[in-house]
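Task 17 of the worksheet. Students: predict the tertiary structure of the chain below and write it out as structure tokens. Keep your answer in the requested format; marks are given for formatting as well as content.
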Amino acid sequence: MKVLIKGAGDLATGIACRLHNCGFQVAMTEIEEPTTVRRTVAFSRAVWEGQAEVEQITGLLCRNEEEIRKAVDKGCIGVIVDRECRILRQWKPDVFVDAVIAKVNTGTALGDAPTVIGVGPGFTAGKDCHCVVETKRGHDLGRCIWQGSAAPDTGVPGIIGGYGKERLIKTEAAGRFYGSAAIADRVRRGQTVGYVETEKGRVPVTAQIDGVLRGILQDGVTVKKGMKAGDVDPRDVENNCFTVSDKARAVGGGVLEAILAVEKSRGRQL
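Model answer:
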């Protein structure tokens, strides 16, 4: 079965890895300038580097449907820059997964593919997708929702190691971002980990807590004031920066369950 995932950030990548390992042919779309923070575990990195490897799976940057076919035939995941998701009409996947985590529906419709799955808030099962998968940390993380929607976005990150919003590193100005620390570096509260280049000079970007820098934006990315630029993990485990997160695995499991449940409901052999 062919699966097209809209988005190639860290959550979308967790979904892609789980489906790829289960034998699905997977392609992903991205925007021209990805704003993924956890770049070491995101296939969106292929947009910048031509390819990206996550847990021994390779994502290859593709220019068209033919190159996607060649990529999946080689056992890789095809990644294409396609903001409007036009490849949907050309590749004709069996399953379409909207995993951009925009907190709103940016255009996904029930008729986009035989099976359509919305990830996180902004979708309603039965209206614009067949199933919604919960992304909020807690008891329902990864749950398949067949009627209604996921929990609304609160704007407050889940608690990890006793910290929530403090984990986030945010910009203090609009401009272009450049990092001065690398993913997996140990940082301290108040430490400058990057800066925003503005017309009036450089504005520092600092960490709010001690821990491992789990993610930071790509150099040269255009940012707005207050935008997420990084993520500090207070658990201080360096290896976590290079493996799919527990949240992404749970959401990926929910997407897999949704696909198989729809196939079973249609009387298809699993």
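Marker's comment: Helices lie at 10-21, 45-49, 65-73, 87-91, 246-265. The mean pLDDT is 95.
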